[in-house]
Amino acid sequence: METFEEHRTHLVAVATRILGPGGDAEDAVQEAWLRYSRTDVSEVENLRGWLTTVVSRICLDQLRSRTARREDIVETHLERASAAPTPEDDAVVAEAVGGAIQTVLDELSPPERVAFVLHDLFAVSFDEIAQMLDRSPAATRQLASRARRRIRGTTPATAPGREVVEAFLKAARAGEFDSLLELLDPSVVCRADATSVAMGGPVPLIVGAHDVATRFNGGAAALFTTIVDGLAGAAWMYRGEAKVVFDFTIVDDKIVAIDMLSDPDVMAGLVLEKV
Hints:
Layout: H1 8-19, H2 24-37, H3 47-76, H4 87-96, H5 99-105, H6 110-122, H7 126-133, H8 137-152, H9 162-174, H10 177-183, E1 184-192, H11 194-198, E2 205-207, H12 209-216, E3 223-228, E4 231-238, E5 241-251, E6 254-261, H13 264-269, E7 272-274
Parallel strand pairs: 1-6
Antiparallel strand pairs: 1-2, 3-4, 3-7, 4-5, 5-6
């Protein structure tokens, strides 16, 4: 049976990326351990996912508490010193999102920050994040999109992940199966919303590099590279209108998730730009 310690490193990484440098991340993981120790998890099918949800909710509460404290400080004109982050703390955050992006993360609302970090850095689906935030998946996607657009202002003009997406589409069109596998994380997931499936798309969920590569191998001829909310993606166009958007999640130059989006409510909130 899986144990908490098997997932501690992952949980510390999640908490650190949500909360930033300092000791709060370790506190969040310790609180998660306490909840784990008091809960019967024998019937939990995905312990890693369950623990990620617990830690994320604890971090969300901490972010909201920070926001409330900052507002109190401004209102009462008080200043409170905080411990300076250590070089080790800075290194962890820099590795995850970069120093410039961390500054912007600190300015995001707690829900925006959680949605962006969990989806863009850890490939957690918006359905799962929506449950944590008590919002709809469409609303949760908008939170991450707003965060991404703000963060984009601190990054180069070239959309992050563009080279990976273009290499993926090129390999798919040419039927280069091995090249596709090299670009995909072994645990990659391809998710299609209900509207995409109704339009003749794939099954709602495909898991694993082999199956995802098989799905796209020899295809993608009608897909065009685009920018989706500031990040590289692709779209299937019909009469000049995007009918299906392919939202790529890329971590360490590997594709960890591909979301096929056609739902009108979601599409209405996306910002698409030509490459």
